[in-house]
Amino acid sequence: xxxxxxxxxxxxxxxxxxxxxxxxxxxxxxxxxxxxxxxxxxxxxxxxxxxxxxxxxxxxxxxxxxxxxxxxxxxxxxxxxxxxxxxxxxxxxxxxxxxxxxxxxxxxxxxxxxxxxxxxxxxxxxxxxxxxxxxxxxxxxxxxxxxxxxxxxxxxxxxxxxxxxxxxxxxxxxxxxxxxxxxxxxxxxxxxxxxxxxxxxxxxxxxxxxxxxxxxxxxxxxxxxxxxxxxxxxxxxxxxxxxxxxxxxxxxxxxxxxxxxxxxxxxxxxxxxxxxxxxxxxxxxxxxxxxxxxxxxxxxxxxxxxxxxxxxxxxxxxxxxxxxxxxxxxxxxxxxxxxxxxxxxxxxxxxxxxxxxxxxxxxxxxxxxxxxxxxxxxxxxxxxxxxxxxxxxxxxxxxxxxxxxxxxxxxxxxxxxxxxxxxxxxxxxxxxxxxxxxxxxxxxxxxxxxxxxxxxxxxxxxxxxxxxxxxxxxxxxxxxxxxxxxxxxxxxxxxxxxxxxx
Length: 502
Ligand SMILES: C[S@@+](CC[C@H](N)C(=O)[O-])C[C@H]1O[C@@H](n2cnc3c(N)ncnc32)[C@H](O)[C@@H]1O
Known about the structure:
single chain; alpha/beta; N-utilizing Substance Protein B Homolog, Chain A; Rossmann fold; 4-stranded antiparallel sheet; 20 helices; binds S-adenosylmethionine; methyltransferase; S-adenosyl-L-methionine
């Protein structure tokens, strides 16, 4: 791809397998036990009023646009693997839903998708059949109701009656009786009262407890806990951070946009990245510098791992490679820094449309569609190589509300094999004395330390202390790697290893 048209390039494209909610283990509670009758242990029944509000008369159900949109989004996620954060804006625009209704629809859909692991455990306690035996359209409507009851300030009677109307309109009046019965039982307790009932005690089963309490698949909880050195309380803080919507992080590409320009557009300077800023509100696409690809939306850790690669001192520094460049977040920043230094970036991605996005994100770089495992370049041709490897993405779960239920632990052997092959090629691509950054947006030990350990065991490369190149960032771990965390840094959980070729 050449650099014609680059400035004004069109930038508009910007199974619950593996222990998903239906498959998660509950903590030794008897589903058929006393809770079904609404007599379980727990505190006062502060939500008792919902029972009254939940009984709908025979009148016509009311169509609520926000709840219908939230419901349709959940069905699209379930039925056709839609990405919630991509589909929601389209859905709202098509239906001309704006303002508070749009905010409500988004909160209900995203909150329910995130929380449904916990909600299914509660539904199981309040139903005569397990969630996996409930018709998925009905189950999604009930989950939306549970979210409103237990995680929003919507009055219980309104949450129940709106859900029953939704079920009557979208599923049928027969199922609405079942939904009503379940929701009335759910409404008898607050979330704080439900959790000790549905989650196993943390002392007996820390992973099971955290999985239910923070609505994550158990295998992900175990992997994150291992990456945090077994610290259960810190794992809880991480899972809580995963349940928060991330702030919108921006990067001002150096030499093309100043931080002041982003601040003038309403952003606040970031804590660590010298080029980073956070947008508290508003549409980042409306910022002129972003429309012109001089700035971009980019996680702060993603900026910092790219900057760390540029900070390692080198003698002779002209040729840089980004082996997995699409959609171009890191390539956009590397290209800007390379241009300032008189170096030249080559970006590659195996997928055409992602290579095209990298091309749109850069101004001077050459971008090619190429499979990194079959290199289109000579060995030893580069001074700096970025390998931002394909991975499970366990460090970016907060970005997509449904992502945690889509990840599959069975993908790990295949991914780690690819990561090893790509890292081998990266080490071949860099000249002796040159440096490789191995990056994943996953902290999973099999994708991070294990891969680097295997590829450096033969002494081919020296592992640098990556933290030394990020002196402004505390809490990156014991080294020699740098590990970012959402709960510590407010960023994705990015992993960085810096390797100098011997
Ligand atoms: C984690 S993403 C890279 C993100 C990118 N560096 C950024 O900052 O925007 C991984 C990329 O690797 C690409 N990829 C996967 N297998 C590849 C291969 N064998 N060769 C080159 N690229 C590959 C994917 O298409 C994907 O775009």
